[in-house]
Every structure is written in C-alpha cells, then in structure tokens.
User: Fold 3-isopropylmalate dehydrogenase from Acidithiobacillus caldus.
Amino acid sequence: MTTVVFFPGDGIGPEICAAARRVLETVQEQAELPLTVVEGLVGGAALDAHDDPLPPESLELARRADAVLLGAVGGPKWDGLPPAKRPEQGLLRLRKELELFANLRPAQIFPQLRAASPLRPELIEGVDILVVRELTGDIYFGEPRGAEVVQGKRRAWNTMVYDEDEIRRIAEVAFRAARDRRRRLCSVDKANVLETTRLWREVVTEVGRDYPDVELQHLYVDNAAMQLVRAPAQFDVILTGNMFGDILSDEASQLTGSIGMLASASLGQGRGMYEPIHGSAPDIAGQDRANPLATILSVAMMLRHSLDQAPLAERIEAAVLRVLDQGLRTADIAAAGEPVVGTQAMGEAVAAALREQATS
Ligand code: IPM
Ligand code: MN
Assistant:
C-alpha cells in the first residue's frame, strides 16, 4: 500500500490541499490505485498545536511515506517568533532531514492564460523553463550564522557555502533533465564576486564534460534575472543554488501569469515532496479565493516522480487544461471583468473533467 502524507500547513494551505485531495481521490478511484492519504502538521499549524514547526511525529510520518504533499507555511501570526520557532523552519527542516536537495520548478505558458502574463505575448511565446534549484545547502543552511548586539550596535551574519559534492549531485540532476528536454542548460552564479559560485561554475563545467550533447552556458545572476524578462524563451533548464533559485523561480513564475499555477518537486534519494511554489497568502486565507491549480499540478508531479504513475499525471494535467479551456478562472488568473470561481469549485471542476475523460 502506497502512503502519501498531506501537510496542509497555514493560510490558504488547507483549502488548496482539500481541493488537491479531491482530485487525487478521483484519479485513485478511477485507476483503483491502492493509496492511503494521511494528514500531518507542519509550520504555524504545528507551532500552535505542539510548539514546534516540525514535531517529531510529523517528521516520522514523512519518513515513512512514499511521497509528501505540502500546502504552504507561514503567516503574520508567527512573524515575531525567534528564528527556530518560525513556521518556515518546519519546511526547511523537512527538506534537510529528507535530503531533498533537488528542487524542480517548471514554468511553462498555459496558452489559455497568455493574457495574464505581464509580458507582451510575443515575448512569452514558447516559454518553457525548468528551474533546477539546489535545496539543502547555500546561505540557507551555512554556518556560522547568527545575530548579536555589540556595544549597542546590532549585527547579523550568514554563510554562503557549497562543497563540490553538493554541486556535482545537483548538476547531474540538471544535465539529466536537460537531456529529456531541449538539451540546453544555463548555470547561474555570481562567479565574478563570490568564491562559492566560482567553485559552482568549475564543478558544473566538469560535470558538463559527461554531457557533451547538452549545450552549457553560464550566466551571472544579475544578467540571468534581466534575461528572464527580456527574452525568456531562450531558456530551457536553469541550474542554480538555493538562494538564487528562490529568487529566479519566483521571477520565472510571473512569466506565466500567476504563481498560482506553478508546481514543484523536491527530490533526493528516497521519497519526494511536492508543493506549489507560492506561499500561504494569509490575506486571502479562508475565503475560498485561492487558486488550487498549482497544488493539483503538484499532485500530478507526485504521481509522475514518486508513484510511477505518469499516465495518471498526464490525466490530471489534461484535466487542468480542460477547465482552463472551459474558461474557469480563479481571481489570480482572471482577466478584468471575467467571472471568477472559488477554490473549491475549481477543484470540483478538475475532478469533473477527470470523470468526463473517463467516459469519453
Ligand atoms: C520557497 C519559499 C521558501 C524558501 C520559504 C517559505 C522558506 O519561499 O519554497 O520558495 O525560501 O525556500
Ligand atoms: Mn520562494
């Protein structure tokens, strides 16, 4: 029996996860997939219940599962807490404990949503990018880190650090992904200033020798950020570290019109974790306004990468395209004046499209 853990988390997390769960249960019924879904607490929800953003029982649930689906964590309620007691720590510790070093963040244009992109249609034509972000190293986890007050003056510091093994293993993931796509890899660094990323460039270049069929290019992160809005169609796979990847994947998401559409997979040796790339959107939490499609598409990634059910992933992806074709729009992807549906209705519509597929 396959087990999947849902960690709905905070803000809009519970609503988008409920919609995603509906969709998973629908394909599960259709395919007679033996699968158990259990729910656990992380983030602020776990802080409230157990005073720990990743309680031991949640970590244990994740370790025993075949895959993890996470909604979103964080919110103003917990903003004033000390660093170790922030909701985000739950997510960061999950990534670290499960050794999920490879974060895949695809950004492709949904033709139905062209108008939602802030870029002109001719600029986004053909955009199909995969950001491969290193997820368990870099300045996010580097030591030493800290904050202190010295003679009445506050200072704080973090450490950007990578060793060559960490760079090599993420580079391998990116080159292999490029091989299955358009065979172009752009590695992003700041090698003109930072030693860490000079090493990054060296190691990526070395790994690239084993992939002569993949065209390797290096860009500085400032230039990459500019190119992403100037001519985004030039990119295929973008490989970068944890911090630059965090920033560039948000930027890439906007090309597609809404961060509410983009799924992600975090992979390591064992089970993977799947999440929408957006946050917990506390401003619209509990109002049935959030777009569940990124979470639903994360379920599709989960079926493909962790559960060996690529055909079911494709069915979900087709159902999402179908509801977009039908004109269903949550507020984030609606054009001015277009009617809007809520989170639940959007989830139901995807489930209905799946049932319709099965009978046609
Ligand atoms: C993301 C998020 C997280 C990150 C936060 C919530 C810790 O922004 O997944 O991109 O910075 O990695
Ligand atoms: Mn982010």
Q: What stands out?
A: The mean pLDDT is 95. Residues 74, 88, 91-92, 246, 277 surround 3-isopropylmalic acid (ligand 1) (CB under 6 Å). The first strand starts at residue 2 and ends at 9.
